[in-house]
Design brief:
Blueprint: H1 2-110, H2 116-136, E1 140-142, E2 154-160, E3 170-175, E4 177-180, E5 183-186, E6 188-193
Helix pairs in contact: 1-2
């Protein structure tokens, strides 16, 4: 029994002396291991978040680059369109004048004549070529006696009683009208029968 008491005392002494120190050091080791594992986990998460941030920065830079390119393309398109519009207007004006130049040349030649009959004949010939010139530019003259009056394209200056023609028929024309397609350039000035 003495041996049992001695063993119990030894075990008790060891249990009393070592557990507090060993438990503390083991707890500290476990706590350090846990902290290291936790730190590794946090570092991995931080690295993952940094990689995600870099990806998002790259996406944002690509989107900004794309946006800037689209803005630059639109600006170039706007300038090019403006230049083309200005060019179309000046080209159309130049083409119209080019078609009228032969008429001007012929009128200048007609003024060289001194005989009234020759001048009148020359002007008459020039006026005969005018419908062809206007036709090349897509302009047509309208408003002839006998046509039906249309208030959308004619201006009635006077009304005249004329039982032979019927109602709303053009009796006479003071000025011919001109149109380019559906666009009225000048309304015809007419007298209309009642």
């Amino acid at each position: 029994m003495e041996e049992k008491d001695t063993v119990i005392e030894e075990v008790t002494e060891e249990a009393v002396e070592t557990p507090a120190e060993e438990v503390d050091s083991e707890d500290k080791k476990t706590a350090k291991k846990d902290k290291k594992a936790e730190n590794k986990k946090h570092k991995a998460e931080i690295e993952k978040l940094k990689a995600e941030i870099e990806d998002e920065k790259a996406k944002a830079a690509a989107a900004e680059d794309k946006y800037l390119r689209v803005v630059a393309e639109y600006d170039n398109y706007r300038r090019r369109s403006q230049k083309e519009r200005e060019g179309v207007y000046s080209d159309a004006k130049a083409d119209a004048v080019k078609e009228l130049l032969p008429l001007i040349d012929n009128l200048q030649r007609a003024t060289a004549y001194t005989e009234a009959d020759k001048v009148a004949e020359g002007v008459s010939m020039i006026l005969g070529t005018l419908p062809d010139v206007l036709g090349k530019m897509g302009i047509e003259a309208y408003g002839e006696p006998g046509e039906q009056f249309d208030p959308n394209i004619h201006n009635a200056l006077m009304h005249e009683e004329n039982p032979e023609l019927g109602e709303n028929v053009i009796v006479s024309v003071y000025q011919q009208g001109y149109r380019a397609g559906d666009k009225i350039i000048r309304y015809a000035m007419v007298t209309v029968a009642n």
